[in-house]
Every structure is written in structure tokens, then in C-alpha cells.
Amino acid sequence: MTRARTLAMFGSVRIREFVRGRDDGRSRLDRVAGMVGLHSIRSGGMEIDTSSGRVRLGANEAFLFGHDSALRAAPLPELRLLSIVIPAEVLTGVDVPGPGEIRSVSSASALLDPALAFAERAAELDPEPVSGFGSYYFERLLQEMVIGVAVEGAKVPQKAPKADIYLSALAMIAAQREDPALAPHMIADQLAISMRQLQRAFRSHETTPERQIRRARVEHAATLLADRVYDALSIAEIGRYAGFADGSSLARAMAQEGHRSPASLRRASRSADGVATG
């Protein structure tokens, strides 16, 4: 697509813009292996070639696209396409488009507009004053927003196979793990299934929704504790960032998951980096 440019980069996340140039020919969104994009038509429109024929999209329509293939399209007058492109591995367990597939995102999605508004605002920032901590946190927020949009658009029907329920529930947990109010009944409601169905799907994998919520939070906290970017945060603050009430709740959950204490994990990671710890 003509006149493509990167507006901002935060770690592995790119915010891109595509606008129609003077030519009227067909063009494409380039192939970028291992990446998935959330694309929103902010103005104008575009025609996309798919395996089932040509699709025409207009202003305020959005779609997900797997960039392992190039997307061939024709820009229509006044096209402006805003894209948030993230690594596909971040979306593990989420029903995302395959290579070259487009997946429409409903305009009724409660998460779509906030994600796009945040990306627009983030793209306006001067990159120089953004600290390493700030860049990392922008990256995580943008990833989580795209995950949320993808999960919201992938709700399984009530009669879906157990494996689909389990994977969709794991994706929802990953997207919402920092919410301290997250509970199994919320996951069941979002999947439009009963608690019994949810519990049965997890039981078939020899676990429970509660355990997986705790595990997701613990793994996130462990990542933050090992990251030098978060040195300025206390263990209690790390716990709250990961969805726990405080540092004590985090320590108990880490012990239940077989981890060393938060303080020990932080000290060990600093020692591995050759940083003296007092």
C-alpha cells in the first residue's frame, strides 16, 4: 500500500500508517513473518483480495490479519489505515487469523475504540523522553489491547468442543490477568457457558480455572521481578501490577506454584546479571 510509514515502535510492537498515494494500482501490506496486525480504516476504504473473492471495507471497519503472507489490496480514495502489529507468539491460545487470512472485527467491540485511541495517542509521543520502563509498558499495554480485541471476537458458542473452551479461556485469562477482580465466573460469562462446562473443560486438562489464573499472574510477576526495567518498583507494587492484592498475596501464590520468594527471585536475577545486591 502506498506511503506506508512506522509512526512509533515500542519493543516488538509497531504502530503503522498506510495512506493512499497518487497511483490507482493495487498494492499490498508486506509479509512480516511471525506478526499479526490489528488494522482499522480511519477514513476512505480499501478492497482486499481473499481466497473467497474481493472484500470491500469502509471507514471505521477493522480486521485482524496474519502477516505470514502479504495482503493484496486496492486503496480507495482518502484511505488512511492505522495498524498495530504485534508478535503472533503473544497471542498463543487465541483464535487468530492464519497466514493471509483476514478476520473482521465487529464495530460493536467494546475494546476496539479504546485500543485504537491509545495507539493514536502513543504514536504522537516524542520517543526520546520515553524511558525504558515507559517503552516496555507501552509495549505490554498495546499487546494486551490487541489480545483483548482478538479474544472478544473469538467467543466460542455454547456447544463448542471442550478444547476450544479451554484454549479460549486461557486466552481470556492471559488478557485479563492483571485485573484483581478476574474470577472463573467472569470467564464463563464471557464465553457464554456455564461454570460447570468451564470447570469440566479445565478438569479434562487436570487443572482448574482458579489455578490457571494464579499461574498466569505468578508468571507475569516473575517476569517483572527479573526485569531490570522494574527495579524501581517494590515487591508490593509488582504484586499489584500482576493482579494480586499486595506483596504477601504474591509471595503465597509463588510458593503455591513452586517458585522461590519474590525477593529471592529478584536477588537471583540481579546476581545472574552481575549486579551486586546488598
Helix count equals 9
Determine the mean pLDDT: 82
CATH topology of the largest domain: Jelly Rolls
How many domain units? Answer: 2
Largest sheet descriptor: 6 strands, antiparallel
State the secondary-structure class. alpha+beta
Rg to the nearest angstrom? 21 Å
CATH architecture of the largest domain: Sandwich
State the end-to-end CA separation: 55 Å
Globally, the shape reads globular
* Helix and strand run: EEEEEEEEEEHHHHHHHHH
- In percent, how helical is the residue content? 25-40%
Give the total of beta strands: 10
- Provide the CATH superfamily of the largest domain: Regulatory protein AraC
Uncertain residue ranges: 155-160
Biggest β-sheet: strands ordered side by side in the sheet: 1-2-9-4-7-10
Describe the secondary structure blueprint for this structure:
Layout: E1 4-10, E2 13-19, E3 27-29, E4 35-43, E5 45-50, E6 53-58, E7 62-66, E8 71-75, E9 80-87, E10 102-105, H1 112-123, H2 132-152, H3 162-176, H4 184-191, H5 195-203, H6 209-226, H7 235-241, H8 247-256, H9 262-272
